[in-house]
Amino acid sequence: MVSKCANPACSASFRYLHQGRIFSLLSGPGCGVNAVWDHLLERKVERYWLCDSCSQTMTVCRVNDHAAVRRLPPRPATRTGPRAA
């Protein structure tokens, strides 16, 4: 059961589904990118939650068969002001 933010540096407690973001990752044999479909039944779904604050700049992904919290790449700057002709 999810009880706190997946970011180890954050101590936010999970309370409501509408706050933050839940990630579902497959685990078990063949959980990498080149998974064999025959093993789908042997897999389990693991769920991780990032609080509102952490989910703005981070994501949860699978790295070497383990869940990892990663920073999202910076968003490109948006133009403000009139367009150049």
Structural overview:
By secondary structure, this protein is mainly β. The mean pLDDT is 80. It has a two-stranded antiparallel ribbon. A two-stranded antiparallel ribbon has the order 3-4. The chain has one helix spanning 52-55; strands spanning 21-27, 44-50, 58-63, 66-71.
Q: Let me know the average pLDDT.
A: 80
**SS field, number of helical segments:** 1
- Going across the major beta sheet, what is the strand order? 1-2
> Strand pairing plus helix content: what structural class?
mainly beta
Q: Name the helix and strand elements from N-terminus to C-terminus, one letter apiece.
A: EEHEE
Helical coverage, percent range = under 10%
Radius of gyration: 17 Å
Low-confidence stretches: none
The end-to-end distance, rounded to whole angstroms, is: 55 Å
Give the strand content: 25-35%
Report on the biggest sheet.
2 strands, antiparallel
Shape: extended
Total E-strand runs:
4
Topology:
Elements: E1 21-27, E2 44-50, H1 52-55, E3 58-63, E4 66-71
Antiparallel strand pairs: 1-2, 3-4
How would you sum up this structure in a few lines?
By secondary structure, this protein is mainly beta. The protein has one helix at 52-55, and strands at 21-27, 44-50, 58-63, 66-71.
